[in-house]
Amino acid sequence: TPSRLIFSFLVRISFTFSIGYRHQQTTAKRVEEVEFDGPCMKTEVPGPRSKILAQQLEAIQSVVQVNFFCDYEESKGNYLVDVDGNRMLDVYTQIASIPIGYNHPALTKVMTDPKNMGTFVNRPALGMMPPEQFSEKLVNGLMVAPKGFSRVQTMACGSCSNENAYKAIFIWYRGQQFLSLVFSFFFQVPGCPDLTLLSFMGGFHGRTLGCLATTHTKAIQKLDVPSFDWPIAPFPQLRYPLGQFERENAQEEARCLEEVEDLIVKWNQKGRHVAGVVIEPIQAEGGDNHASFDFYRKLRGITKKHGCAFLVDEVQTGGGSTGKFWAHEHWGLDDPADIVSFSKKMLTGGYYQKNSFQPDKPFRIFNTWLGDHTKNLLLTEVIKVIKTENLLDQAKRSGKVILEGLYNLQDKYPHLLSRARGIGTFCAIDVKDEDTRNNLILKARNKGVVLGGCGTQSIRFRPALVFTEHHAHLFLDIFNDAIAELK
Ligand SMILES: Cc1ncc(COP(=O)(O)O)c(C=O)c1O
Question: What is the CATH number of the domain that holds 54?
Fold first, then answer.
């Protein structure tokens, strides 16, 4: 249809950024014009007010994972303010989910624009009666689609996106199988083929039932929950520094790729066909585990060879922090994936899919909300800001400062820190053990820096895209002080 053609044309427009955002005129104020000049701590975190609120919440909900309560009116730019008035530099951003900092004026403007009131007040369900500007906003907001994708399905969260992407893969796979419907009707439970999805040790794709079958990080996430018996391949365990272990790491990646291919062949032979392979470009929750771009290129080749769909989960890596809008762009492939899922920095969840993954009948991929149009409105502005303020280049520059700082710190404290790694601001470092890691995160927080852990002993850095070199230096100074206190 004409609208589909226009959509596909627009999403193919490449993401060209202008240079030197500091000197450019933009309609909204930039982060440095609106934010604070540094952290300011008044109490330990959590402070007394946070503790009272936690007690109140405990009466109705588990609070074990609540760190502290926040004042979202007062928070600005890279600074998160808590209910006790502590102002902290946020290098974690709600698990990588605040793309352009707190209370960005461009987003406040969207919220207060009378034109958008109907959307914010009514929050329409998008499945059956979408608003007039729905496709326009999808085209605008999602024109950062990876190369080769012209279709997008919005969803609510990351798990919900992957869960439905898995279904799309199975439906697609069945469509490829000769006379599949006839056979399933006569010889199998109708409509319930015994297909599988291959995932990787250390991968995280969410906590809903299907996703959980492909999530292999912490045992507690899977405890007591029945799961699918699907193939799991090893993910390369790279040794650092990379330059020193090139041969060993190449062997390790070859071993994992061989195992992937073996698994696909074996599971296909036993009649439990591998319909798809799901992987993160960097295993985030699992401990910021990287593999080389070449590993991913070869893996993509294996999926093509064996007719498996390739789902790249960019829920955490997508949105610009690696210095490219999608981390898989670093692989340099013309046809990198069949489906790419997103959420977090994209605000709305969802996935891009190739045309052939669109189910042929209604209600096969469906739920009431199918995302949230208020998020689509906000995302349109986020993408404008990323473009006009040249924030992908900013992520590269700030990431360089972070990574160099981490290398220095691990040289300075070799008994405590190791394996500094990262692309753009998507960086991490390992601490000698889990307790020390957790202790370091708390010490940094009380000094005014919010950090998060991942894996068993890593600290991950996930600042917003408005995190500048200045913030990186500030963070490294405070982090250094916190480490010094550990000795
Ligand atoms: C790579 C990846 N996939 C999926 C998810 C699940 O997203 P959500 O927590 O929004 O369900 C996450 C969450 O951290 C993630 O990092």
Answer: 3.90.1150.10
